[in-house]
Amino acid sequence: MMSTREPAEIERDISNIDSTLLTVSEIRSSLKYFTKLVQSDKKGPNFVHLFSDRLNAVKRDLNTLSSQGENLKGALEHAQIVANENKFNWALIKSEAEKEAAEEEIRFREEEANSAKAKETGSLVKANAEYAYKQLSSIVLEQKPALIAPPKLFFTTYIDQWMSQKKPTDIVFTITFEEEERVTFTGSTCRIKICARKSLVANLELEYERNSDSLTVHQYDIKGVKEEKNFWQDSQYLVFQKVNLLATDAFEDMLVFFAKESLYNMLDWFVSYHDLFTAPCYRCHKILQFDSPQYKYLPPMVRTWAKKLPVIDNDSPVARQAPGTVYHMRCYIEYKNNHAM
Ligand SMILES: [Zn+2]
């Protein structure tokens, strides 16, 4: 009876198990939303629409789970054979599992404490500043009726709109303002933190220019979610170094659009990384590709992005791919060479 399994297969199994667990937690979250909607007292005019939307999200997740279950069959059979042979080092497994659970718990508590503290201080400072400003303006400024409506804040407005209209409902993806949007003479600036669960965290310093209706990224930094944890640190380091490099090219292409479209392109691109460690490459259909003896296997870290098409190319027979297509770096370069991009 076959009971050996190659390291590459085991790595794929782990990746499959990981994505299945993620689906389970997404099912829980979509079920929670669905229940909340059904139980809510206020059923607005779009209740029917929301109801079928939420129900579809649950159905979709369940379908994903059943297909992922198929992928796990091999691994489960192998586990059963190994379990029958009973050749495990139980003491080691138990201590490793306990250690990891404890670490996870500490990290979670820290995150919780930090975000609560930050919120508290933030709102306190804001309240104080607003109070002081009101006091001051009542002395310094002439009391005039507000004739001009306050300027619409670009990032606040459109990030909100993207989250409610464009973000896929079944993906855990958050955007927080690390520095609130500030109006400048020419437009506004802000610093945001993007977090795609289990894949990446990005910090971005952004500026909106009103006259040219354009967007600039002043600084950015893309990291792994668990980077501080020293978990698979080497390989993660390289993956995110490569994503950072790629972002330079990607931003250049996706920011030549008008500001709102540029912002949407960027958010679409980041959300397409939600399956960084689980999606197979479009070209070679594999998840892990051997990189080097030092870094071993890497997932496909390229997600294609929105790009303005050159006019001459319009009747080229090669259909352009939708943004968000998954590639290994090497497969992507190959694809670009083949299509002379
Ligand atoms: Zn590939």
UniProtKB/TrEMBL annotation:
A GO MF label: transcription coactivator activity
Pfam families: Med27
Keywords linked to the UniProt accession: Coiled coil, Nucleus, Transcription, Transcription regulation
Keyword Transcription regulation assigned: yes
Subcellular localization: Nucleus
GO cellular component term of the entry, any: mediator complex
Coiled-coil portions: 92-121
UniProt keyword annotation of Nucleus present: yes
Domain of life according to the entry: Eukaryota
GO BP terms: regulation of transcription by RNA polymerase II
Primary subcellular site in the record, as a coarse category: nucleus
PANTHER family linked: 34 KDA TRANSCRIPTIONAL CO-ACTIVATOR-RELATED, MEDIATOR OF RNA POLYMERASE II TRANSCRIPTION SUBUNIT 27
Homology family: Belongs to the Mediator complex subunit 27 family.
The protein's name in its UniProt record: Uncharacterized protein
